Amino acid sequence: MTASLDHQSLGTFLDTLASRAPTPGGGSVAALNGAMAAGLISMVCALTIGKAQYAAIEEDLRGIHDRAETLRRELQHLADQDIEAFERLSVAYRLPRTTEADAAVRRAAIQQVTRQAAEIPLRTAQAAAALIPLCTSLAPQVGRLIVSDIGVAILITKATIQSAILNVEINLAGLDDQQYVRETRASIEDLVANLNEKTEEIVAIVRDRING
What we know:
Blueprint: H1 10-17, H2 26-48, H3 58-93, H4 100-129, H5 132-138, H6 147-172, H7 178-192, H8 195-211
Helix pairs in contact: 2-3, 2-4, 2-6, 3-4, 4-6, 4-7, 6-7, 6-8
C-alpha cells in the first residue's frame, strides 16, 4: 500500500508523480488541487477573523472557515482513496482467467472496483463544487489585498471539478451497468451547470476589487 500523501513531502510527491509509477495520477492531482483551493479559502478567513473592521461578518467568516477546513480534509482523503482504488483495480486485472469461472470472477471484480474508481472522483467534484458558494460569499467582503487569493481559489476549484469529471468518465466507459452510468452522467451535468458563469462572476468581482 502506498504511503498516505499526508506523510510525503511535496518534493517526494512531485518526483513520484513525474516518474513511471502509475500513482499518484490525475484523480489524486484533482483532489489535491481542490484541497489547495479550500486551503486558500481558509487562509483568507484566518487573516480576516479578529479584525475590528470585519466584526460584523466574523460569525459568517468562522462558519466559512470551518466548512472550508472540512472540505480540505475530505479532498485530501479522496486523493489517497484514488490511489487505493487504482491499486485495487490493478489487483483485479491480475486475477486469473484460465477457466470460464475464473474469467467471470475476474470480470465481476473489475466491474465492482471500476465503479468504486468512478465514485471517488465524483465525490471529489462534489466536494470542490461545495467551495463555490464560499468563494461567492468572500469575494465581495474580504480585504482588497487578499481578494486575489479567492480568485485563485475559484479558478482552481473549476479546474478540480472539470479534471475530476474526466476521471469519472474514463471509469464509466468501462462499466456494464448502464443505469448507473446514466445516473452518474446526470450528476455530472448538475455539477457543471453554470460552472463557467459562476466562475466568471467571482473572477469579475475579484478583478473589480483589485482594480477599483
